[in-house]
Specification:
six-stranded antiparallel beta sheet, about 55% helix, 10 strands, 11 helices, Outer membrane efflux proteins (OEP), about 500 residues, two-stranded antiparallel ribbon, alpha+beta, elongated
Length: about 500
C-alpha cells in the first residue's frame, strides 16, 4: 500500500520572473505560465485530492481483517423457593445463589485467504447457601443448609475455512481489488488533468500572443491610414487631389480605429483566459498586464502517424482508465462465478474446560493447564436449490465485461482518428502558414510600390487604401496561421499524451 503525494516539476528548471504581482506588467514565458498553473490552477488543486481519497478508501477496505476484541463481566443473583410437601405445607427457601462471570475474546475475524477464526474465553463462579428440606418418619420437616461454591469456564478457538464458495475470492477481497484499481484510475485521471491544464495553458498562451500581434497589426493599420490622411490633406491643399480622396482615407482610418478597439477587447479576454488557468487568486493578478516573452516562430516538424498512434494507444490516461475498467469487470466476474459454487466449509474447534473447583484461580489453572481438553472437526455443506440470484449476477457480469471491452475498442479507434485528423490539420496549417507569409510579403511590396506611384502622381489614394487593407488582412492571416499551427501541435501532443514529456513536466508518484 502506498501513500500518495504528487510532485510536479519542470525538468528544465524554470525560473519565474522576479517582477512582483503588484507591478503593471509581467513578462512570462510559456514554461513560466505552465509552472504557475501546476502550482495554482484550481482544477488541478481539486483533482489532487482524488488519489488521496482513493488511497484512504483502499485502506478502509482492509477493515474486515481487523480483529475485534470483546471484554465483559456481569454479576447475577437467583433465589429459588422450597416449594410444598405432599400435604401442602410450605418448605423453606431452597437456595440463594450469586454468580460472577467474566468473558473475553476475538470476534469472528476474516483472513486474507478466506478463513474466519475466533477465540472466546469465559469463566464464572457461583456461590451461596443452598437449603434442602426432608420429612422425617414423624412427618416433621427437617432443613439442612450447605454453602455452595462452584467455578467453571471454557477457552475455545474456532476456525472455518471455505473450500468452494469464498475460497479464491470473497466480498472483502473483491472490494480490495476494486479499490486498488480505483486508486490507479484516480492517478491516471490526475495525470489526464495535468495534461489538460498544461495544454489549455499552452493554447491560451498562443492566443494571447496572437491577440497582442493582431493588436500591433491594427495599430500599424491605423498609423498607415493616418499617415495617408495627412498626406492627402496636403495634396488637397495644393490642388493635386480631389477632396473625395481625402474623405476615403479618413473613412478607412476611422474603420481601422474601430478594429483596433475590437482587438483591444480580444486581448483583454485572452489575458483573462490565461490568468484564470494560472492562478487561484484572480483578484491579485487581474490588474497585471501579461507580456508573452516567447515568439511565434513555429519550426518545421516531421510527423510519423504510426509513432503517434503508438504513443496515444500506450499513454492516453482515458484509455488506460478504460482498460482498468475491463480489469475490474474481470475481477467482478471472477467473484460472481465463485458465488455459483455451494458452500463447503471445514469447521473446527479446540479448547479447554474448567469445572469442579471452587475459586477463580483454580479455574484459570485448569484452563491454562489443559486438563479438560475438547475439540470438534467437521464439514458443512449448504447451497440454495435454484441459486437464481448468483446465476443472474454472473450473467450480468459477463455482459458487462463485454460492454467495457467494446468501450475500450471504441476509445482506441477514436484516438487513432483524432491523431490522424490532428496530423493532417497540422500539415495543412504549416503549408497555410508558409502561404500567408508569402502573401504578406507580396502585399507589403505591392503597397510600397503603389505608394511610390502615388507620390509621383501615377496612382490614386483609393488604390493605396485598398492595398493597405490587403496588407492588414495578409498580416492578420499570417499571425492566425502561425497561431493555428502552434495550437495544432499542442493538440496533437495532447492526443498522443506526450504533452508532459514535450514540455518537460515530471509527474512523479512518491511511494
Amino acid at each position: 500500500m502506498k501513500t500518495l503525494s504528487l510532485i510536479l516539476v519542470m525538468v528544465s528548471g524554470v525560473t519565474l520572473a522576479s517582477a512582483q504581482e503588484s507591478a503593471k506588467t509581467l513578462a512570462l514565458s510559456l514554461q513560466d505560465c505552465i509552472q504557475r498553473a501546476l502550482e495554482h490552477n484550481l482544477d488541478l488543486q481539486v483533482e489532487r485530492y482524488s488519489p488521496q481519497i482513493a488511497n484512504f478508501n483502499l485502506q478502509g477496505a482492509y477493515a474486515d481483517y481487523d480483529p475485534t476484541i470483546n471484554l465483559g463481566g456481569s454479576h447475577g443473583y437467583s433465589l429459588s423457593g422450597g416449594g410444598y410437601d405432599e400435604s401442602g405445607r410450605p418448605l423453606p427457601s431452597g437456595s440463594s445463589i450469586d454468580t460472577d462471570s467474566f468473558y473475553a475474546g476475538l470476534g469472528n475475524t476474516l483472513t486474507p485467504w478466506g478463513m474466519t477464526y475466533g477465540l472466546q474465553g469465559r469463566i464464572s463462579e457461583s456461590y451461596g447457601p443452598i437449603s434442602r428440606s426432608t420429612i422425617d418418619t414423624n412427618g416433621m420437616i427437617q432443613t439442612f443448609t450447605d454453602q455452595y461454591d462452584n467455578t467453571q469456564g471454557s477457552l475455545v478457538a474456532t476456525v472455518r475455512q471455505p473450500l468452494l464458495k469464498n475460497f479464491l475470492i470473497d466480498a472483502t477481497r473483491l472490494n480490495i481489488r476494486v479499490r486498488r484499481l480505483a486508486l490507479q484510475q484516480s492517478e491516471l485521471k490526475l495525470r489526464g488533468t495535468v495534461i489538460s491544464v498544461a495544454t489549455s495553458v499552452e493554447l491560451a498562451y498562443y492566443d494571447l500572443i496572437y491577440a497582442r500581434e493582431s493588436l500591433k497589426v491594427q495599430e500599424k493599420a491605423v498609423e498607415l491610414a493616418g499617415q495617408l490622411v495627412r498626406e492627402n490633406k496636403k495634396r488637397v491643399e495644393v490642388g493635386t487631389m480631389a477632396p473625395l480622396d481625402e474623405k476615403q482615407a479618413e473613412a478607412q482610418e476611422a474603420g481601422n480605429r474601430a478594429d483596433l478597439l475590437q482587438s483591444q477587447r480580444v486581448l483583454a479576454a485572452a489575458e483573462n483566459a490565461l490568468k484564470r488557468l494560472m492562478t487561484d487568486r484572480f483578484s491579485e493578478l487581474q490588474p497585471v498586464e501579461l507580456i508573452p516573452s516567447d515568439k511565434l516562430s513555429p519550426p518545421a516538424q516531421t510527423f510519423d502517424l504510426q509513432l503517434s498512434w503508438t504513443r496515444g494507444l500506450s499513454q492516453r490516461p482515458d484509455l488506460l482508465q478504460a482498460k482498468l475498467d475491463v480489469e475490474r469487470a474481470g475481477v467482478e466476474l471472477k467473484y460472481y462465478h465463485n458465488q455459483l459454487y455451494p458452500e463447503l466449509d471445514l469447521v473446527g474447534t479446540y479448547g479447554h474446560n474448567a469445572s469442579g473447583v471452587r475459586e477463580f484461580y483454580q479455574g484459570f489453572g485448569q484452563l491454562v493447564g489443559g486438563q479438560q481438553p475438547t475439540y470438534t472437526v467437521g464439514a458443512q455443506l449448504s447451497f440454495p436449490l435454484s441459486n437464481t440470484g448468483a446465476r443472474s449476477r454472473y450473467r450480468a457480469g459477463k455482459v458487462a465485461k463485454e460492454q467495457v471491452v467494446l468501450a475500450v475498442k471504441k476509445i482506441e479507434q477514436d484516438i487513432m482518428v483524432q491523431i490522424d485528423d490532428a496530423i493532417k490539420l497540422a500539415k495543412a496549417s504549416y503549408e497555410r502558414m508558409q502561404a500567408t507569409r508569402q502573401s504578406r510579403e507580396f502585399a507589403q511590396a505591392a503597397l510600397d510600390a503603389e505608394q511610390k506611384k502615388l507620390e509621383n502622381g501615377k496612382s490614386t489614394s483609393f488604390e493605396v487604401l485598398r492595398l493597405q487593407r490587403d496588407l492588414t488582412t495578409a498580416s492578420s492571416e499570417e499571425i492566425r496561421a502561425q497561431t493555428e499551427y502552434k495550437r495544432n501541435l499542442a493538440q496533437l501532443s495532447s492526443f498522443e499524451a506526450s504533452t508532459l514529456d514535450r514540455l518537460g513536466i515530471n509527474l512523479e508518484v512518491m511511494k
